[in-house]
Design brief:
Pfam families: DUF6199 (PF19701)
Number of domains: 1
Distance between the termini: 13 Å
Domain DUF6199: 8-66
Number of helices: 3
Radius of gyration: 16 Å
Keywords: Membrane, Transmembrane, Transmembrane helix
Transmembrane segments: 44-69
Number of strands: 0
Largest sheet: none
InterPro entries: DUF6199
């Protein structure tokens, strides 16, 4: 069970880093295909996406730590 937590934490951590580094990617995947022509996400969306990415990184790190703790004890 602890190995699963660690792997899940690593996956979540990687997704969080992607969300922080490229916040517009999520918009293009979810909303960009609905709009014709050149369109970009708003600044508010980009800021909220980066904040969400930070929270996801924290959650992934927490899962990794819990998994390591369960392995050791």
């Amino acid at each position: 069970m602890s190995v699963v937590l660690i792997l899940f934490g690593i996956i979540i951590l990687a997704l969080g880093v992607i969300q922080i580094r490229k916040p517009a990617w999520g918009w293009r995947v979810n909303e960009g295909w609905k709009v014709e022509g050149e369109s970009e996400p708003s600044e508010a969306y980009l800021v909220l996406a980066e904040i969400g990415g930070i929270l996801i990184v924290v959650m992934g790190a927490f899962l990794i730590l819990v998994g390591i703790f369960k392995l050791l004890y």
